[in-house]
Amino acid sequence: MKYIYLLIFALGFGMTLNAQATLSGKITDAEEGEELIGANILIGSKGTITDINGDYTLQIDPGTYTIQVSYVGYDPIEEQIEITGDMVKNFEMGNVVLKEIEVVADIAQTRETPVAFSNVSVKQLTEELASQDLPMVLNSTPGAYATQSGGGDGDARITIRGFNQRNVAVMLDGIPVNDMENGWVYWSNWFGLDLATKTMQVQRGLGASKLAQPSVGGTINILTKGIDSKRQFGFKQEVGNDGYLRSTLSATSGQLEKGWGISAALSYKRGNGWVDETWTEGVFYYLRIDKQIGNHLLTLSGFGAPQSHGQRSFANAIEVYDRQKALDVGIPESELLPQEETDRGLRYNRFWGSLNGETLNTRKNYYHKPQISLRHSWSVNEKLYISNNVYLSIGNGGGTGTFGTSPNTDSTGQLDLQAVYDANQSTNIFKPEPYSEGILRSSINNHFWYGILSTAEYQMNDRWTFSGGVDARSYTGQHYREVYDLLGGDYFKNIEVNDRRNKRIDELNTQLNVGDRIYYDYNGYVKWGGLFGLAEYSDKRFSAFFNASSSLTAYAAEDFMWEQFVELPDTSFYVNYYSPTDPALNTAPTVIDNVVYTINGPVGDDLRNFAETNGYSIDSTSAKNQRVDFVVIPSVSIKTGVAYKINKQHSVFFNTGYLSRATRFDNVINNFYSSGRGRLQEFKTYENEKVYSVEAGYNFRSSKFSANVNGYYTLWANKPLDRNPTVLAPGEDPSDPEAERIQLNISGISARHVGLELDFAYKINRQLTFEGLASVADWTWQGSASAI
Fold first, then answer.
1. CB 466 within 8 Å of CB 460
2. CB atoms inside a 10 Å sphere around CB 562
């Protein structure tokens, strides 16, 4: 029996040695005493975040540890503690300090900044994002809707309060990344950014952004890990369906000796895609180096993601995927497609086919957009802080599609690419050489973009703070189509396709090879500069801000493919290459005062003989590229808001604003090409977009339940259409395929966005919390407009 007692004693002693202690406590704001939700607590290799009451709990072995507490905008806490048993440890975090974040990145503060916002923590990114595109985690944000679009990796898009991502400002460490011509955001360019993200905040509405030109729908601000982050090293291996693999290495040094800090990440992914032929492959790299020199902080960062992936573009009729679903939603059977063209399943993608025994998706996106920035942050004294940030973005890549003779669809619903390939290789009496009549083209969209963002903040006293700065950018977008894949032929002809061809080539049937440009070739230029100023007031209960900004937007464009332009003292006209022996060109040379004018470039023998025969001289230097010189458009915005803390449980806020901004590039400069009559020109009429916004919100917080409710009203006057419509030119015959069409810019259409948003959390017990959100909205067009 004594051996049994000894065994029980040994087991009990072992259990005592291995028993874990409970470390718990509360994290609060030192000045206001308010609980901080989502604060990060790290002790040893374990970590957690505070709940809606600012409470945290960790199970940990007894011992001596260094505990680290951090929260965006607050001084991090690092303290050594000894744990011998269950222990309660509370922390009070100091005033908002991290000026680099506060000044540059426009982070809103709970119950203080009078805007609606949501924070996304690293924990949430880790648990909810998985292998999705970064915006998909924002579906748990009120008023936000993210979707994978056609299903291709990196093709996600997000709308906030009914405004698509053209009108949602996306910033990385305070640097704007929306395309400067159309405002779009391409998430495939940053597929690995979740590895380097410290926190992400979504501000809805006009927000608290300090940029000279705020957004309409909201602001997504992504902050990366730096010298203020904890030291860590990690490796992550993700495995998913359809061959998805992603391997990731990441490291953050925290603050090293002599003020250095390094953060780095490297990731590789590949996969076949859930949607048919939406394969993906890419590499993400990230490096950030911080150096603290006294009261100066220098930060050099760079990242990029060279990638390519298959796409599924455009929507299909519902019955193509599921015939019964189409009937269920009320589509009459008489209006459905034939039975053999339906029920292809949700994975169906009509843009691929088989070629020489292998599959080929004709829709491919490939791009690399590295971004480099250098920031200098300077705490001049306790009152004045200055930040200067210069950045550079270089984008190269494009997207493919069919061109020329389009492939037919076979009985399975896929493209018959083999038939196109075989036809390209064939010869006959009418086609003596194996040239390509159907090819793959690539639409190239390269850009070169640099800018500077300088901000200064002056804290006059405990209540008043003033800030302002300069936001300047320069952008060149290079847009053209090129031959991407000849699909079996030896070359492609400079033929008329949809009445468009390269007018800079002197022969209509000139042989074009891979990389030669077709269909369009032009540059868009955008220059942008603005000033902004902000006044903020805050005391224990009341806070307010007033923001005003003004900017100038300049658009210009130059064409490199259409006819060139000649301007003489008494006349002006367009010219292109002319070959008198080629009747297909069907144009006569331009002769004025015995001078033959032609495009700026080499002169062909046919035109030289024509001029000599008729006693004409040749002018091939007066012609210039079609160009629209810079069109300068002024903009202005005003925002103001107030927040009031009724008590520790209740608070309210209100904000309003007016925004007048330059409309998009394509609504100012017309580069439409119709029936061989391409003319690059400024639209005759266009107006600034004007936005009026009002928003109010209420916040409740108790030991068990917390909730935010806010409503908004936004009137967007002169909202541009996503695509400018075209109409027949006056007097043209609609049955004539050569009839000239005119593109219209319609000004004066308005849209109204009204909505109510709710998010809440109920703490059932210490381990279980129930969260929810709801959004109700009415987004409608208002009235109509006309164009001349």
1. yes
2. 25
